[in-house]
Structures are given as structure tokens and as C-alpha cells.
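Backbone geometry:

***
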Amino acid sequence: MNKYILPVSVLGTVVGCGVLLKDHVTGGSCPSKDKIKGKTVVITGANTGIGKETARELAKRGGRIIMGCRDMEKCEAATREIRGETLNSQVYARHIDLASIKSIREFANWVNQEEERVDILINNAGVMRCPHWKTEDGFEMQFGVNHLGHFLLTNLLLEKLKSSAPSRIITLSSLAHIVGEIDFDDLNWEKKKYNTKMAYCQSKLANVLFTRELARRLQGTGVTANSLHPGVVATELGRHTGMHQSSLSSSVLGPLFYMLVKSPKQGAHPSVYLAVAKELEEATGRYYDVLQEKEPAPLALDDSAALRLWDVSAALVGLKPAEMAPPPKEEGVSVATPTAQTQAQLPVTPLPEKV
């Protein structure tokens, strides 16, 4: 047996170093051990990937978890799995389709009527680089689901979040926002040739801008709003990209891909950190690259674009003034409340016809 000791030791050392290196390269683990017993968490897209692992970890920490998903069969299976593993019976599956205004309103109405509180809202669900699909209401799918769906849901749950303060809103964006542009003249890609990559980047830039304006409007309410890039994570989100479908790319890029790309469990750490860390209780309007606060792209710091996006988004989803966070009454946060002249310059895009 002695002749096997050295090879096994070397193999163990290599594997151990590989695990440590991957942990370092992918950003590390959530540094907070804080519990959330007694708190209610709403997570969209929680039946798989980052959302599922976030739900699992927050259930371990004692939270009451509402898993909002489109595919109820997968969601109910995930709920049973998490309940069994964490021994937390307060994990529930509820239907929401972020590509449907009707479904979003139904889900929000249920939460507002049935749940006593909402302490944490995690806007996790998303679609990436899909074909030129449209939502039920006629929006380009990536902009519709990634931004408009969460924009509407967040506003509809704001009163519940305010009454549960201190509470937190966390929206998953992406590093891809740095090359995104908001084309206010053609948000739904109806005038120009569809570019699935740039449509995704536009939706992720919208996430950061929305969070910035939301935080401005929520100053003094006890509700915080932050966005994050979870890192590059191996999830079903990339199913439309065609990565590693050839044997050549799998064999050549496989080891590198493993070292640089996170597992869904690792990808959940940033969401968990922003949801539970006591030191972040008052942090708001910030952007996090994995576990570190970073400055987003210059376009994501444009307060006038953030305000314009808010107004256009509200018009698109038919959000009434009484249903959304109002602009602050006093200045000194980010940008001024628009004047009548400024408001007149903001385009109000009509709601597209259903397809």
C-alpha cells in the first residue's frame, strides 16, 4: 500500500488546491452567518439554479420562503426537496409568470392578502439570449421578464415591504450591463434588427437603473434596494447560448470552464449576503459585483435615464401612481423631481398589442 500513498497525497493536494483556487477565483462564500428567523422572503425563479440555492440557504437560516415560479411542477418538487433537507416546513410554491402582467398582479394580490409581512424580495428570475420572443403583453421577452416584470412586482409589493421595515429588495443584474444601452425609441426591438445579446445587456442595465431610482424613492422608508452581479454561474439561464455543445469545446475548455464558473450554490452567496448581513441593513442604491460593492458602468449612474426608464416602464405596464413608489418630497438624494417641462419631454410608449 505504501506505493500508493504518494500518488494519493499528490492527487488530494491538487484537488484541494483546485477547490480553494476556484473558491477564490469565483468570489468566495457569504461572510455573514446571520439568521432570519421570523422573516418572510419572496424569491422569483426559485425552482432551479441560483434562485433554488438561495431559497435553500435562506430556509436553513430560518426564513419563511415564498418561491414564485412559472413551472409549478418543478417549483413544488424544489419546495419538497428544500423542506426535507432543511426541516423548515415554511417553504411554499406559488405561481407567477413574469411574462404576464395578469399573472404578476395575481401573485402580488395573493402575497398582499395572505402574507402578514414581506421582509426580503429577491428579483432573481430571468431569461438570457433567447430568440426574438414576445411576452403575453407584447414586450420583447428579455426586457419584459428581466426588467418590466420585476419592476411591476416590486411596486405592487412596496406597501407590504414598507410595513415590514427594515426590509430589503435585491435585484439580480449582470456584469453584462456595462455594454448595455437603453434605446428609449425602440425598447421592444421592433424597428431594428434583433440582437439577442444586446437585448439581454439592455435588460440588465435596466435592472441597475431601476434599483438606483427605486432606492432614491425609498429613502426614509426603511426599505433598501440593491442590485448585484452574481458572477458567471453554470445554470439553465445559458441554455440559449449554445456554449459547450461541441465535443471540442467541452474537452478543451471544460477544465478552464470548471475553474472559472460557479456552481448554483456558489452563485447564491451574493444574494444571501445582501439578504441577511446586518452590516448591510442600511446599504441602499448600491451595485455589488459578487460580494464586493463596485461602481457600475457610467450609463448605470445616469439619474436622468433612471428616472426616464421609471416613467416609461410605469406607462408600459399600466402602473397607477397610487401603486408605485412616489418621488421623494425633498431633494438631496440623487436627482431632482422632474419639472413639468422635463415630464413633457419624457416619451410615454403605448402598451403594445398582444401577440
User: Anything to note?
Assistant: Confidence is low (pLDDT under 50) at residues 10-26, 249-258, 331-355. The first strand starts at residue 40 and ends at 44.
